[in-house]
Design brief:
The chain is α/β, with parallel strands linked by helices. The protein has one domain: Alpha-Beta Barrel (TIM Barrel). Helix content is 38%, strand content 18%. The chain has eleven helices and 14 strands. The strands form four sheets. An eight-stranded parallel β-barrel has the order 4-5-8-9-10-11-12-13, surrounded by seven helices. The chain has a two-stranded antiparallel sheet with strand order 1-2. A two-stranded parallel ribbon has the order 3-14. Helix 7 links the parallel strand 10 and strand 11. The longest helix is centred in the N-terminal third of the chain and has 15 residues.
């Protein structure tokens, strides 16, 4: 179930994501939650999920709040970023036990200075997830890496693993568009994530950074946005109104729109759900999100 508290009255309503879809509003909006990322630790927020069990509990709460996809990072024994397939599988199993079979689980290939392109791709091949996020500039740091990445994209397509391509700026978008136009990205359904800002201390994203990026996107692509700091909500509002989708969570932001620290990732998902409804759209449930993103059941 999803709990929604009116900003005006303070009254709390309880409803399910499917009930939102049944209202047949203008457009279904995908909400992805990124609950931990590669860098933050418990000292950043005591509710930051680091273990498989904590990720499962967080996934269940965020799914109930309206998230249709979870962007998954796992940590090693010392809580450093890891792409270990065994740790991915353990976390995925725990999330399925806690949150059920519907939530889309998207693993990351983020390098964080630790993993080379071949290691990132090998992790995905060994894990065999249903969805994966790929930072273009990390998989193709130089032109000589393009051929291997193109072969990997074809493998994802053949294996029916849904990719999301992470793009940070205009140069990333144009580089990805070149790959797409040359047939090196074989998917019929393209989903990109536009990152507004960088992983820096005290980073605050600016919603005004979004329109210049949108000007370079192919009209057929689906796109989501993630942002940093307390302006996350303003950036999500801009994205929703411009026809995009949302990624929120403790990976990039710990604050509610009023600047108060969120008590949980689910608080940020609920905040995004409110924005979706206020825009006259519907919060996509996992089944609808799978149709949008062409994510196949595994």
């Amino acid at each position: 179930m999803m709990i929604k508290t009116s900003k005006l009255t303070g009254n709390t309503d309880i409803f399910s994501p499917m009930q939102i879809i049944d209202r047949k509003m203008t457009r279904p909006v995908l909400i992805t939650v990124a609950p931990n990322g590669a860098r933050k630790l418990k000292q950043d927020h005591p509710q930051l999920p680091l273990t498989a069990y904590e990720l499962g509990e967080t996934a269940a709460a965020c799914s109930a709040a309206g998230a249709a996809m979870l962007h998954l990072h796992v940590r090693d024994k010392g809580f450093a970023h890891s792409l270990d397939p065994e740790r991915y599988r353990a976390a995925i199993n725990q999330i399925r036990q806690a949150a059920g079979p519907d939530l889309i689980i998207q693993i990351t290939t983020e390098a964080v200075g630790r993993y080379q392109p071949a290691e990132q791709m090998a992790s995905v091949k060994k894990t065999r997830p249903e969805a994966v996020s790929l930072a273009l500039r990390e998989l193709i740091p130089t032109p000589k890496d393009e051929s291997a990445a193109a072969g990997f994209f074809q493998w994802l397509y053949t294996e029916r693993i849904a990719p999301q391509y992470i793009l940070y700026d205009e140069d990333d978008i144009l580089a990805f568009k070149s790959l797409y136009q040359r047939g090196l990205v074989p998917d019929e359904s393209i989903h990109v994530l536009l990152v507004l800002g960088r992983y820096e201390a005290s980073q605050e994203s600016d919603p005004a950074a979004l329109p210049p990026l949108l000007a370079h996107l192919d009209a057929s692509w689906l796109w989501s946005v993630c942002a940093f700091g307390r302006n996350e909500s303003r950036c999500m509002d801009e994205a929703i109104k411009a026809g995009g989708h949302c990624r929120v969570g403790f990976e990039n932001n710990l604050s509610l729109p009023d600047g108060i620290t969120a008590s949980s990732n689910a608080d940020l998902v609920r905040s995004a759900s409110e924005l979706v409804l206020e825009a006259g759209c519907s919060v996509a449930d996992p089944a609808t999100a799978r149709e949008l993103l062409q994510v196949h059941w595994r």
